[in-house]
Amino acid sequence: MNSSPSSTSLSSPKAVHADLFDQSALSALAERLVEAAKRAGADAADAVAVRGISQGVEVRDGAVEESERSEGNDVGLRVLVGRRQAVVSTNDVSGDGVARLAERAVAMARVAPDDQYVGLADPALLARDIPALDLLDPEVPSTAELERRAQEAEAAALAVKGVTKSSGASASAGIGGMVLVTSAGFHGAYLRSNHSISMTAISGEGTGMERDYDYTTAPHAADLASAASVGRTAGERAVARANPRKVETCKVPVVFDPRVSGSLVGHLVGAINGASIARKTSFLKDRLGEQLFAKEIRIVDDPLRKRGLRSQPFDAEGVKVKPLAIVDEGVLTSWLLDSATGRELKMATTGHAHRGVSSAPSPGPFNLHLEAGQPSPAELIADIKQGFYVTDLIGSGVNGVTGDYSRGASGFWIENGQITYPVSEVTIAGHLLEIFKSMTAANDLKFIYGINAPTVRIEGLTLGGR
Fold first, then answer.
1. Percent over 90 (pLDDT), the chain
2. pLDDT tens digits, residue range 55-95?
């Protein structure tokens, strides 16, 4: 994000932030860019204008260590000349910058290689109505309020018995938005806000120190967990990890805590991304329509969730978006596609295009969740004689081409259906197809992350210990 001076300050909530919330200038700029591209010889074009304003503070031991503010408006122009495409971006279009940017983009497109799949979205698929998703919190917090949130979180963590020091707390707030204009007649815009609080606590001393964290994030400050609860949870987690033990290498049921279980959904979604399918670099490339999970498993991507962290009223090509069950009754039902990957795979876009100002559209998810199952978390582990409860994952040793899964982990040992002592420095390994097949979901789903899942049990993973 670019930094620039501004006469509007996040620390003045009463100055009703008209400049922050007004996208009319960005909309006019995007329109001028598209018109300039057409005059310069483009057959088609679209322009994205992105606004980003954020402020954050970090505290340690009650004192502010860092306070940052950034603000910037960036624009990107994509032009198409025949089947050739180019993308240019800038944060300065003063003077005759619009015309020069458009001319440069068209010149680049004329020497780009042919790509039979590029092009704007089918006009019939464009969003006609922009749904209200309640993504913008009109109350902009002051710097003093952000400091208060961070300090409250830290104080709550340090009050937990066994916490020996703070690794720092932070609070932030910001506003972001996007304007999209295309030569096919689409014009859409939206704004979203974001608030967050985080805390990392340390227990123990010297080589026996353990750390853990908690955080909360939401478009509206009213939907955040309290700063005190964030700090307290971080402290309690750090204390619970004290004096971890090693375990022998074995093959056991592994239960994923909700703060890490969403990673399994993330691995699935990475494997069904249209770009990976088109390149044939996914272990699921031939699995569309197959039963990959138990019938009770349903995984949904919902871009229209009210106040959702990744909600959008349209995708980055202006295509209408809607909830999509990518897994229904255990069956893989769809890829995630934008227009280009859809054309390459001879399918329609699923409305999953994302893009920045300096890149062409590419497919990706919005708000993902694995639907809750029937058993409670306690019932999910009740029959496990020996097993592992994962609370933290380390590294990214997952091969999207082969489906091999191997990640460092820490958590707690399960004995006779009870979570017992902490365990660290282990590796959990298996294959994603087997992981998906044996997945059982608990009933404790909460919508607090970009990818949400309840507690999940997986059978027969290999635990690499001492």
1. 86
2. 999 999 999 999 999 888 889 999 999 999 999 998 877 76
The per-residue pLDDT for range 235-262, each reduced to its tens digit, is 999 999 999 999 999 999 999 999 999 9
Crossing angle of helices 227-240/143-158, nearest 10°?
30
Q: What angle do helix axes 24-39 and 97-110 make, rounded to 10 degrees?
A: 50
Q: How far apart are CA 102 and CA 280, in angstroms?
A: 35
pLDDT above 80 for 1 = no
4: burial class by Cβ within 10 Å (0-12, 13-18, 19+)?
A: exposed
Q: Is 300 helix (H, G, I), strand (E, B) or coil?
A: strand
Residue 118, Cβ neighbours under 10 Å: how many? 20
The segment(s) of the chain belonging to CATH 3.30.2290.10 are 18-231
346 Cβ contact list (under 8 Å, min separation 6) = none
Phi-psi region of 111 (alpha: psi -120 to 50; beta: other; left: phi over 0): alpha
CATH number, domain 18-231: 3.30.2290.10
